[in-house]
């Protein structure tokens, strides 16, 4: 398999990704090359959206331009594919930086630029960078890492980031699908000990009156097995709802040799959270609870 050369370009721009009201935005007409409001909306008054326009808007101005003026597809050329990522990410100020791997597939091995955009009223991810192109070990696909080490001023906020890639080879200018990441920035932890450098939740699902959780723990480098085991005995997993109410009792985790953990907590339909917030040694992670009963789950 030929290795793709990915040229990295960052575009941080406002988009219409969060628009759901009936107000048209005339200021988008000129920069997108539209002829009028009805290129994107169903009426001149801005009522409704044409199919596909909101997905295109996730790619910022390049996405809107491509939607309104699609690039003729060269014979045998196919759109690049930006592989799906988790929608929810967490990062703690002063701890390990957030790294989101972006994997790309393209049948023609075209060169690419990576576009980053935020919703119209979204918060800018100041300080974020993109890595050089690398080859992902597991998939053997070209990959670019989105890296961000937020500051204290960016804590206690959630940032929405949309990613797309666009071909940059001669005659090939197709735009990929868009993927979205919601990033919660937590304040610096106040715990006296810091044996854990990263804490992750990778699955949260409610079934059979149980909240089933799974994730991973990354310990500080240099810990001996004895130090790690001692730390596990004193650490407890705490759970809360999105609004801050405690869920169940604090409990210990069993972590395997690779740092993976699983936890099942018995909960009734009226006590399961819609979104669960977990805290472990001062590090936080959050996740929507799949299959949580919409009518009774706790906000």
What does this structure look like?
The chain is mainly beta and 299 residues long. It folds into two domains: 173 residues, Immunoglobulins (Immunoglobulin-like, Sandwich); 93 residues, Immunoglobulin-like, CATH 2.60.40. Helix content is 9%, strand content 33%. It has four helices and 16 strands. The strands form four sheets. It has a five-stranded mixed β-sheet. Strand 7 and strand 8 form a beta hairpin. The protein is globular, with a radius of gyration of 22 Å. The termini are far apart. The N terminus is likely disordered.
Keywords for this entry:
299 residues; mainly beta; Immunoglobulin-like; 2 domains; five-stranded mixed sheet; five-stranded antiparallel sheet; 16 strands; 9% helix; disordered N terminus
Spatial gap, N to C terminus: 48 Å
Q: What structural class is derived from the secondary structure elements?
A: mainly beta
The tally of domains stands at 2
Query: Which CATH architecture of the largest domain would you pick?
Result: Sandwich
Let me know the largest β-sheet. Answer: 5 strands, mixed
Radius of gyration: 22 Å
CATH class identity of the largest domain: Mainly Beta
Uncertain residue ranges: 1-23
Strand order of the largest sheet: 1-5-9-10-3
Q: DSSP strand (E) fraction?
A: 25-35%
Given the structure, what is the number of helices? Answer: 4
Tally of DSSP β-strands: 16
Q: What series of H and E elements makes up the topology? A: EHHHEEEEEEEEEEEHEEEE
CATH superfamily of the largest domain: Immunoglobulins
């Amino acid at each position: 398999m030929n290795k793709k050369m990915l040229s990295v370009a960052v575009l941080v721009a406002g988009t219409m990704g969060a628009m759901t009201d009936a107000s048209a935005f005339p200021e988008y007409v000129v920069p997108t090359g539209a002829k009028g409001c009805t290129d994107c909306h169903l009426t001149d008054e801005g009522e409704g959206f044409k199919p596909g326009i909101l997905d295109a808007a996730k790619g910022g101005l390049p996405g809107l331009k491509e939607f309104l003026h699609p690039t003729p597809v060269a014979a045998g050329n196919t759109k690049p594919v930006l592989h799906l990522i988790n929608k929810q990410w967490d990062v703690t100020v002063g701890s390990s930086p957030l790294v989101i791997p972006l994997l790309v597939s393209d049948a023609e091995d075209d060169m690419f630029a990576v576009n980053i955009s935020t919703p119209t009223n979204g918060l800018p991810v100041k300080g974020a960078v993109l890595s050089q192109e690398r080859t992902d070990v597991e998939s053997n696909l070209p990959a670019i890492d989105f890296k961000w080490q937020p500051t204290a001023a960016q804590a206690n906020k959630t940032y929405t980031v949309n990613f797309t890639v666009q071909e940059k080879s001669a005659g090939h200018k197709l735009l990929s699908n868009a993927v979205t990441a919601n990033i919660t920035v937590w304040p610096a932890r106040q715990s006296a000990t810091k044996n854990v450098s990263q804490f992750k939740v990778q699955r949260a699902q409610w079934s059979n009156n149980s909240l089933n959780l799974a994730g991973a723990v990354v310990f500080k480098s240099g810990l001996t097995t004895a130090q790690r085991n001692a730390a596990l005995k004193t650490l407890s997993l705490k759970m809360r709802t999105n609004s801050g109410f405690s869920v169940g009792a604090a409990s210990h985790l069993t972590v395997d040799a690779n740092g993976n953990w699983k936890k099942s907590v018995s909960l009734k339909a009226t006590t399961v959270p819609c979104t669960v917030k977990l805290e472990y040694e001062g590090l936080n992670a959050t996740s929507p609870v799949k299959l949580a009963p919409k009518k009774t789950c706790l906000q």
